[in-house]
Amino acid sequence: MFGEIKNQSGEKLDYAFHQGNAASNRIAVLGHGVTGNKDRPLVTALAHALAAEGIHALRFSYAGNGDSEGRFEDATISKEVADLGAVLDALDGYAVCYAGHSMGAAVGVLRASADPRIRSLISLAGMVDTKGFAQREFGAVTPDAGYMWDDPACPLSQAYMDDLTAIGTVADRAARISVPWLLVHGTKDDVVPIEDSQAIFEKANAPKELVVLQGADHVFGNDATPAVIQAVLAWVKDIP
To answer: What angle separates helix 103-112 from helix 77-89, to the nearest 10 degrees?
Structure first.
């Protein structure tokens, strides 16, 4: 429907569009986390649910991930912020809600804090303390030699570690976001602690909502997936 979407490097971004109400200009753009892609179960299920409620949905893979062009080693938060900008360029005339999971949520915070084209924001298990995440998850791995979580398909690059460290935290961007914002986090998240969402929620402007899902893990697996979808749908129905 939107033709090819390419980022500033000329890399094609793979995406899937889910038709909602043909008369509506509301669209949800769904972004995944590190080592993820547009076909992750949570992202796919949420896109289908939004479309069923009449809201168009576009899920895409950041460059270097899934079937998008580019190298995985070059996929940093800063580059993905630019990728998201390329997607927004293709959606002229739409009222965009961006929903990001994990690192994709950090991308959304950075983009929404500077780009008025994002009209509402959803952070799902959102990464906030990027430097802390880098040290906690990959501090014992040698960049450009080792892998993320011992997965050979996901080499850890120095560029990725440097970017996470340079950003430090996205918490200070919260004050620059004035659009409606939903945050959802599970109490059993062992990748991004729930304190990340709590910390940025305190700094966020109204209107805002934090939904805590008891027992939910980082990917909102099993029974938590319907709970996330329910929380999102209940929230978006009141967003213009």
So the answer is: 60
| pLDDT tens track for 14-71 | 999 999 999 999 999 999 999 999 999 999 999 999 999 999 999 999 999 999 999 9
- Is the per-residue pLDDT at 1 higher than 80? no
Total-model pTM: 0.98
- 49: its two tokens: 């649910």
Token pair, residue 54, equals 């009449």
Token pair listed for 105:
């949520």
Q: How many Å apart are CA 215 and CA 124, to the nearest integer?
A: 15
Structure tokens that stand for 197 in this block: 């969402």
3-state DSSP call for residue 235? helix
What are the beta bridge partners of residue 122? 99, 182
Domain coordinates of the chain in residue numbers?
15-236
Homologous superfamily of domain range 15-236: Alpha/Beta hydrolase fold, catalytic domain (3.40.50.1820)
Nearest to 114 by CA among 167, 191, 176: 176
Distance CA 126, CA 79 (A): 18
**Each residue's pLDDT tens digit, 125-136:** 999 999 999 999
Q: Is 208 helix (H, G, I), strand (E, B) or coil?
A: strand
Tokens of 179: 């659009």
Helix (H) or strand (E) holding 56: strand 56-60
How many angstroms separate the CA atoms of 61 and 57, rounded?
Answer: 14
Q: How far is the C-alpha of 44 from the C-alpha of 23, rounded, in Å?
A: 23
Judge whether residue 240 has pLDDT over 90. Answer: no
Q: Is 175 helix (H, G, I), strand (E, B) or coil?
A: helix
Regarding beta strands 95-101 and 181-186, do their DSSP bridges make them parallel or antiparallel, or are they unpaired?
unpaired
